């Protein structure tokens, strides 16, 4: 999970539309890789509940670890949503910049005629 979180913390958004779209595809792949991790987190959570029921003396220790895992998973999910949002904004900005450049170029051509 920490490896995935490190990948999500990348601040790179790319200098152009193609780069941002490539980063977006890479992020989508990363989100697909998170699906099996979520299943494992759910299994660990279920196992922790089973252990707490079977071994009441270990409840405090298991609760602490269970809480750590669930908090870390929440952080990973939030970072994935934030990264997706930043990339979507970057795509919009790049499209706007490209359109602006095209309009300025067209205006300059019209003026030079």
Automatic annotation (TrEMBL):
<dbReference type="InterPro" id="IPR018159">
    <property type="entry name" value="Spectrin/alpha-actinin"/>
</dbReference>
<protein>
    <submittedName>
        <fullName>Uncharacterized protein</fullName>
    </submittedName>
</protein>
<dbReference type="Pfam" id="PF00435">
    <property type="entry name" value="Spectrin"/>
</dbReference>
<dbReference type="GO" id="GO:0005737">
    <property type="term" value="C:cytoplasm"/>
</dbReference>
<keyword id="KW-0677">Repeat</keyword>
<dbReference type="InterPro" id="IPR002017">
    <property type="entry name" value="Spectrin_repeat"/>
</dbReference>
